[in-house]
Write a structure and sequence with these properties.
The protein is α/β, with parallel strands linked by helices. It has helices at 11-16, 59-62, 85-88, 98-110, 125-137, 154-160, 176-183, 188-202, 229-243, 273-285, and strands at 46-54, 67-72, 94-96, 116-119, 144-148, 166-170, 207-208, 214-223, 248-252, 290-293. The protein binds iron/sulfur cluster.
Amino acid sequence: MKNISSEKNSERDLLSLLEDCRLCPWSCGVNRLRGETGRCGAGDKLKIAAHTLHFGEEPPISGRNGSGTVFFSHCNSFCVYCQNYPISQIGYGNEYSLEDFTGILLSLQGRGAHNINLVSPVPYTPLIKIAVDEAKNKGLKIPILMNLFGWETEEFAELTSDFVDVYLIDIRYSNNETANKYSGIKHYTEVNEKFLKKINEIRPSVELDENEIITKGLIIRHLIIPGHSEESIECLDHLKGWVGNEVHLSLMNQYFPAYNAFKYPEINRKITREEWERVLKHLENLNFKNGWIQDFEEDN
Ligand code: SF4
């Protein structure tokens, strides 16, 4: 078995990580360079569904000009309520060469993006790293962000820490049964704890530039799932215990039922104001000091 954090610097070594793919906790061991695919379904080429300026992220990410967001096809978790399911679960998108992807990164910077924001990047990380290095050689200067589910390994943290400036990481569940039921993954809580602690060590503080745009750091996101406000409360307790209450936290109420959520009546709705306020009250009680909360839309 190959340790993904070792021999990570040359292009050849990075590509070799696809020969025995263990980039995520599934640790499939498939040879993606020979056409095999593992649980996520990603192949040996970068597959991208969209790349655009995105204005809906937290203020220090979107800023005035937008976040240069790249949505990768496929995903290594299988959320039954995924709002991006055509991309993540069905795998819509087009394959790009490393050279073309490098061009995309530079063109997002050229359009004024404050950063490069990589969504569902895990299965493509070695390829991304090669392209980012090349883009930096050609003038890419804006920070690199990774948008992660919080179900990544410590080795993945080591593989990415020298080129990812900002980590946006979920704490989605406090209960492994719920994680398995709604996202089809195992041991979420243990994996989430280790990964969040590791990244908190790597990026212990948030740094902003003169325009209040994030340049380094960790932002943790929590999406409240309907009928599960108790789990949200437990997630906040976990978070405070794992990384303290000074971490930057983004509390989100934007859930709406998508994809297969209709098969699970308890999550086939938006969250209620009562659920939102319960979680908010607990956030205040725990005295989290930094971050953002979404406005509650009355049609929830
Ligand atoms: S990235 Fe995909 S192929 Fe690799 S270990 Fe994870 S699920 Fe398996």
